[in-house]
Amino acid sequence: MEISFVRVSDNAARFALAGAWPAFANSLRREMTSGVPTLAIEDVRIYDNTSVLFDEMLVHRLGLIPLRTDLRSHVPKDQCSCQGAGCPACTATYTLSVEGPRTVYSNDLIPQDSTSGPVSENIPIVKLSEDQKVVIEAKAHLSTGKDHAKWQATTACGYKNYPVIAIDEHCDGCGMCVDECPRGVLGTEDGKAVVLPGKLEDCSLCRLCERACLSASIGSEYSIRVNPDPERFIFTVEGDGSLPVVTVLSTAVENLKKKATDLEAILADVSGKEKP
Question: Which of 33, 106, 220, 225 has the CB geometry, 3.0–4.6 Å to 118, for a possible disulfide?
Answer without folding.
Answer: 106
